Amino acid sequence: MADRVIKKSEFIELIDRLLESYRVYAPVRQQDMTNFQEISAADQVDLSLANTTMSPKSIMLPQSETMFEFNVDKTSDQAAILRETEKDLSPRLIFGIRPCDAKAFQLLDLNFDTVAYKDPWWVARRKTTTLMGLACNAPCSTCFCTSVGSGPFAPEGLDLLLVDVDDYFLIQVITEKGEKLLNEEGIETEAAGAMKQAALASEKSSLQSIKSVVSAASLAQHDTKTLFDSDFWEEVQFACINCGVCTFVCPTCWCFDIQDEVHKDNGIRLRNWDSCMFPLFTLHGSGHNPRAQKLQRLRQRFMHKLKYFVDKYDKGVACVGCGRCVQQCPVNIDIREVFRLMND
Amino acid sequence: MENPYLPYPVRIDSVVTETEDRNLKTFKLIFLNSADREKFIHRAGQFAELSIAGKGEIPIGIASSPTEQEYLLFTVNKVGVVTTALHQMSAGDVIGVRGPLGNWYPWEQMEGKNIVIIGGGFAFTTLRASIVYLLHPDNRSHFGDITVIYGARTPGMLLYKDELAAWNERDDIRIHITVDAADDPNWQYNVGFVPAITQEKAPSAKDAYAVVCGPPIMIKFTLPILRELGFPEERTIMSLEMRMKCGVGMCGRCNIGGEYVCKDGPVFSLTQLSQLPGEY
Amino acid sequence: MVSLKEKMIHRALLLLSERKVDAVLGFQRGTIPMMSHPILIRHPEGADQLHWDSFCSTNLANYLPQRKERIAIFAKGCDSRNIVLQILENQIKREQLYIIGVPCQGMLDRRKVQAELNGRELLGVRETSQHLHLLGEGFMDSLERSSYLQENCAICTHRNAVIHDELLVEPVLEQEGVDRYEDVRAIEAMTASKRWSYFEELLAPCIRCYACRNACPMCFCPVCFVDESTPQWLGKSIDPTDTKTFHFLRAYHLAGRCTDCGNCERACPMSIKVRQLTKKLEKDILELYGYEAGLSLDQSPPLDTYSPDDPQEFIR
Fold first, then answer.
1. What would be the CATH architecture of the domain defined by B8-101?
2. A268: domain range?
3. Which of B150, B157, B231, C52 is most buried (CB neighbours < 10 A)?
């Protein structure tokens, strides 16, 4: 599918037009950070930072979401019978998502969209959401996407990929869903050779600028129990304060909790993000906790991402190299160092 | 698309208090919609999430056999928020059931083999389902000798006492009931811990599978005895417990290594378990 | 700062090789600019990993509760005050600790510095006594150190360790005439409804990651009230009422126990000024009891003790 091109000034008009048929999510300024939010006008978009502080996963898997509703009024013949909460599943567009974060959605599909079970909300949202990505012309020093199967211009998981070329966006058309959007909006000007050359040059220089590299090649070969019992966990875990920052900012951490809440006669069953860093995550009713110690919880996080996931799906690690945990961990536990310890 | 988180509504048909400490009750559940009943096709060894609106869900082994088609049985130990709420409910109340979930004892592999069932305490539930299944006239001839060793702390803590007595009368199943201690002078069965009785009764490992389900301490001391008796790891079958939420392998908490106990388990052979980190 | 670091390495080496302690608690250089990594060193050979700069702001006392070995700890003023409180609350024993006081000029706020960068990426920093030099692709900026202090450091009146076995270098001059509660008074002056919306806005970005709680050297309950399930005191969603309940109760639990070390605010990934809550309680405790937390082993936090001349009537 041929690349298209659009002038940046026209692009802003395009976003405003798309707002008529899509719910549009894009990076929006919040004090000294940006985060994805539903916008109501194109001028709310802020692309000045390399990436958002929180990953866009909440657009697919909200931090808190009502699954079911019920009433507990015993006089009602519907008492205690759960019914699905209605969701707005009208078309959505995520604009400005980085390739690493789009790749994360693909990885999470492996968990939520399986042969045996399908998470109905995840699957529906994935289907009704179009991903218009933005290539990274200037990756951060903490970006290591190229080591983990993604890249600053990687198309995986995206429908469209925009490349910032001076006053224009070159638009790579990746899926039919993306093409349909462009055709409907009349974005049909094909990119000229010079424009494509410029985009290629950007990609090349972007790739060259990524200096942060991890190795993951040997992870699959290593014996699970040997890794599990390694001495290095003791050292890695020392500084950890067992907060949930790494898991909450991570685009590939998907674990959740299910909770009931009741107000008067009305109740909801909702799911919330959960974290393997929290002791309650695995606490049995009997009081027994298979991961009672900080070391066990920290090890679980890294083993899950860099070993269990690798072995289970044969699709690489459950990490896209976005570097958010590296930047946000309050005590500087650096996953790149854990890669080294586990892989080498 | 089926929503795997949505429970089927069921009505509590009866509640039986099983044990003298009144902490274990068996709930007989009837589906409100017969269509749901038809969708719920389980194998012995599977579990389901019991859902109490406003309290939450709890994974419980299915105590009824697939051959008992009109109802579901769950024997529930009172430990936390959901089970306490369930214990306060009575016949006629509506709850939810989500399932069947997880895998089952390897019935296909076990066909034609002798079966040794070893259970302790309140973990006997899916073993009860298994025994009822095995003894069903349609199934009995497909299996060899059936030996059951079942122990509880005291006679009053045994589950399914009437059924135990009835099975004890049959000649197509050998059953060894034991208690840690009995002060009842009329106690006619064994006294001793499950591992000791297993050693004493020494069920043959020849062409046999051992299915073991019980508290960690019982498992810990029973496994070496099964090894001594000659049960290989691949024919030693266990069922595990873990804190669960979704029950369908998605919420991420119940893993042992790369395996989710809710979806890849709860039934594992000792061969499988020995390849996993010992984090359970 | 180089000299401080070298002195630390020297002291750690000696203490470990003479087996005066089993381990030394300090910092390692971070893997990214403006970050540091707490580290426990057990062998003399490991001593040269020690590092010190203006971003070693993590309160190391957070790593002490329930440890069994003899530990040497490099303690800033705030760390030392939390050590005092932990000793008083039986989390660690005085005789287990070898406290090396590190006089502190105030730690720098990486987010304030980041805000100056406007999206440009920082690749390294260099420090001099008055300045912070920022290095990146095609730029080198210099910032006046004093303008980028962590907010708690800017108003700190205990920069030297209040309890120590030795001082690494000569004490620094304590700041005097500091107005610690200007912001608290501004909130107190608000009408009730304005104050409520102020707190609502303040806490709205919270993602319930509990970094503030876990970063706090005084949050060491075996089971936190937010993690209790029987009974469950509050919901686990990001419902604003539950979120506020968490923050308010956490702050109350720190009344008379908070040293304003700033570890909570520093750890928050959403840059929430959670100290706005604890500072109000700090001010109240000071006004009601004349007590500042963690200054002396002879003074327990007022809410932990009963005394017949308690200023409040209700307890008598």
1. Beta Barrel (2.40)
2. 224-343
3. B150
